[in-house]
Design goal:
It is built from 15 helices and 14 strands. By secondary structure, the chain is α/β, with parallel strands linked by helices. The chain has 3 domains: 172 residues, Rossmann fold (3-Layer(aba) Sandwich), CATH 3.40.50.300; 91 residues, 3-Layer(aba) Sandwich (Rossmann fold); 111 residues, Rossmann fold (3-Layer(aba) Sandwich), CATH 3.40.50. It has a 6-stranded mixed β-sheet with strand order 2-3-1-4-5-6, with helices on both faces. A 4-stranded parallel β-sheet has the order 8-7-9-10, sandwiched between helices. Helix 12 links the parallel strand 13 and strand 14. The longest helix is centred in the middle third of the chain and has 16 residues. The radius of gyration is 24 Å and the shape is elongated.
Length: 420
Amino acid sequence: MSLNETPGANRIHIGIFGKRNAGKSSVMNAITGQAMAIVSDTKGTTTDPVSKAMELLPLGPVVLIDTPGLDDEGELGTMRMEKAMQTLHKTDLALLVVDCREQTDQTEIGLARELSARAIPFLIVANKIDCLGADRESRISDCRRVIREATGADADKILFVSAKEKIHIEKLKEAIAAFAPEGDKRTLVGDLVMPGDLVVLVVPIDSAAPKGRLILPQQQTIRDLLDHHAMAVVTQVEQLDAVLRGCAEPPKLVITDSQAFERVAAIVPDTIPLTSFSILFARYKGELDGFLRAADVLDQLQDGDLVLISEGCTHHRQCEDIGTVKLPGWIRSYTGKKIQFAFTGGTDFPSDLSKYRLVIHCGGCTLNRQEMQHRIRTAAQQGIPMLNYGMAIARMHGILERSMKCLAENGAGPDRRNEK
């Protein structure tokens, strides 16, 4: 992703599903206007999900995801199908591609039912109408009726196209824009400030910080503040006291990297609201109430308990890495117990969490809300407490109540912004 692109987590995710040789890759290529996915008459050409970020007007920034066929065979085929189904966890809108020459079968019917059960909006894309011959319109009418009866889909959710000949592809794009959910209207920090408010961001630069840039949560928070016409001052912990003393008026809010919570809390007066980037993301993509309840489990951990520390991204681990080094150290010190730890990153989130006493997850800046909510639901359904990095760190440093206070007091939303 270039520096000028919308982050993938902020894009609407459009998953393309169907059986092998239904034309999923051809549909993706037709929508993007590029040969992004390999197209072949050989079944099972797509072996892993293929993603393409693009601007799909009038919808805006999206990610298209081409998936392996849902009727694959053999041991490898089963693994490919699992990868395809995992894509559902982050899908905001699904395209179910079917071959209009073939009878709708249980694979396609089952996926349509699964999408409905998950409340994921979907369109059925009946591909290969160029192969229907002279009586195309009659056969399309019959096919539409059969698909409706089999899947229960409304007529306006069934589109007939030819990806090969680019027939009705523009109509498909228009339908995607009409049926896809609206862009996320929530804000990271904009509802906590008003135009002209000063916000201080504390960004430690240590050996774990990427060279030459800020990490995504910091970038997104700065952008959100600018979008809401607030003023952002960025500093390191060592200069924080001087920054606060140099302000003509106290800042409206101080936001810190979670790993510096303890040092920052000692510098920032109690009269100035304080929170962390991670906690803001917990509010933005997670469930604050559930995370708060899970924080109590930190005080209940016992020798031998297994804690899962999970991150949404994958990155090279440094000696001061917060997930694999600092968090385990803080937890062992806080509890005084011999806690065991497991670690996951990227898309590798376990479906079975039964062996874990607690899950501690990062803010999820690289995950879209759909994926983050899936992980939260997975934990909740299995009765496994889950909380967020920042909230865990704040609890262990005795400042969780303080770090949450500003969210409750200032989060009055749009009406408050009209006071000035």
